[in-house]
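Q: Trace token order:
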Amino acid sequence: MKRILFSPIGGNDPIGNDNNRDGSFLHICRHYRPDKAYMYMSKEILDYQNLDKRYTYCLDRLCESIGISVECEIIAGGEKDNVHEYDYFYEKFGEVLRDIRRENPNCELLLNVSSGTPSMKTALQVIALLGDYDMTPVQVSSPNRAMNPGKEDRRDYVAELRWECNDDNAPGAENRCAEVKSPNLLALWRKDLIKKYVKVYDYVAACRIADDMAGRLDKDAAALLRACRCRLRLDTGGVEKALRDVSDKIPKSLLFPQPSSDIRNVFEYLLWLEIKLKNEEYADFIRGVTPVADEIFRMLLAKIGIELTAYYDAREYKENGKRKTRYTLSPEKVGKDPEVAAAFESRYRNIDARALGTDNLGVLLDCKLKSKTEKDKLRIVSEFAKKDRNSFAHEISAVTEEWMKGNGGEPKKVWKALQHLFHYSVGGRIKEAYWASYDAANDEIERLLT
């Protein structure tokens, strides 16, 4: 990884006239040995550089003496720079550092927070605290652990002499660098924000924040977020791809259970539907009940040994290159079963060739299920699908829990009924802990972010 140094150049650089020791810029280069150094020079400092090349001269001599190579780039301040204006340097340095990151992606970025004016130093400290990416502020203490003496006449400066008299060239000279150990406040705030989004299953928003944190987020946490986002989209392939980036120390099978393929889609859909309910997205909940009810009702028929073709005519067709089967209620077949025929006549007055759907499947199952418990659950779902769905489809209305109760049933009871019927149809193949797997994944993400 490339090591990059960004440094304002100050009055005590490159080597102090008063103490014959490295200024902060040179001292950081001596001990951190960056691959490249960006030197920000105000107009006054740039005039000195143009006068005698003192800054680049001393850097070149340092490289020669310790056997390193540091590429150097000078960033010239503007004619109108106010070197004591904090707001200006906060914006200016922010732009410069973003450009440096673009030029040097995935680099280790050091900031010299001991050179330059107080406004420059403060701006860099704040940027390090609030920046979008990792930066390491480096402080260099003065040799006598006290304030540097007042400013001398910088025009009266002989770089060659300063270098020869520099006490930091001596073997065993003290390393006065210290990294400023402070948390990145923006990263902490973003992690807290991710935790809040995860608690309400908003993985899209959480992933957007994670993407902005480039390298500041635990890799397992980032991969789990991507897996959860794909899972909520019912994207099984995306989940499996994201989980490949999760380390083996994470209990993936508990967080993302994989029941057998013939029931996995319905199981995941029911969890998706439960999240819609938890987030009070009732319109999506209403729209989502019918597809999963259809699937569960068919599974119930298979559970009690009834083939669809016993009461429905089947016709195969192609859609988008895939073979599918369309089922239509057969008056002739239904007529052969007096109990079912009476139920259909009671519900529809006459038996006609209507397409298979939740409503007529519910009528058939109500006749054939023997258990009162399953019949009661079936009626909860059928009544909801019939009333709430129809009311929602034919009027513009605010869809609240109270509205749903007045138009077909309590949504929580409906979901519980669907869950019960699914459990009954698959014969206990879903472990109880699987139903809490979203929350288990959320807890693991929160742990990794803490």
